[in-house]
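Box 3.1 A note on notation
Throughout this textbook, protein chains are presented in two layers. The first layer is the amino acid sequence; the second is a token string describing backbone geometry. Keep the layers aligned when reading.
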Amino acid sequence: MAKTKVAIVGLGNIGCAVAVAAAAGSDIDLVAGVDIDPGMTGRDLGETCGIGRIGFGVRSDLSEALVAGNPDVVIIATGSRLASVAPVVLEALEHGAHVVSSCEELVWPWEASPAIADEIDTAARRNDSSVLGVGVNPGFVQDLLVVVAAGATRNIKKVRGSRMVDLAERRKPLQAKMGVGLTPSEFEDRRIAGKLGHVGIEQSIQVIAAGLGIELDEVDVEDGPLVAEDDLRAGATLVGAGLVRGMWTRAVGREAGRERVCLDLEMGIGTASEDRIEIDAEPPIAMVLEGGVQGDEATVARMVNAIGQVLDAPAGLLSVIDLPPVPPTK
């Protein structure tokens, strides 16, 4: 059986981890790597990602990489916002490739970005390709897992989910994104400027609503800082008392004025990691994942597992509830 040819766009922590996992598979052939960092251009992709020389260099030009590698699937591990990722998705589609992306807004783009979603869907169908936004949060723990669990219930009244993440165990860029080490006033300035915060909780709300047939009238999202009461240490990082140790986010989806879906996310230094799902239904369901789902490792697994899924999927822009929740067996 021929190997699936895969190109990776974005060779940061997640992109390189995907490359490592993909290279370990017997059914995947890495054929191209793309990153805009000039320091990576020309460097061997394998050496860049720590898996040893594999014989071709990282390119900065996506079109050149697509022509040279002719991939079956393009993995995009770059931005969280659909507007910035969409041009890459569209270019990959025009080269006849399927697309898997960790872009949070691509997990459910139809509410926030309907015009872009329609453009991607049209291009995917025209080129007989499929596009999937996938990850852990959004894309699994606070949405797909909820929908699967709700399949064992009837008469659902309300869904609640909470995700608690200890940022001491996560990479520095994520800590910075959550405002770790800032004063509360610095946090507020950057939050207002759109430079802080988690992207995707609204998408998770929409996935749950679509999966459970709930017609939401509105979705409200709030967030704010978590302030350290005492000095906290995360490795070499010290967060003094009174400084920001992370961030909380809360999203509520309402139908006819009633709360139907409520999601809470807390990411902070010193927060005890845990994922929890509660479904008020017949029968009620309460699930606790002690220690939580490790975000980076699980995101990589979700993306690599999705390679086989998009190859067999119908053409068009898809969501995680359109495909089986587990990867195809080989």
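The domain at 4-135+297-322 is CATH 3.40.50.720 (Rossmann fold). The CA atoms of residues 239 and 318 lie 41 Å apart.
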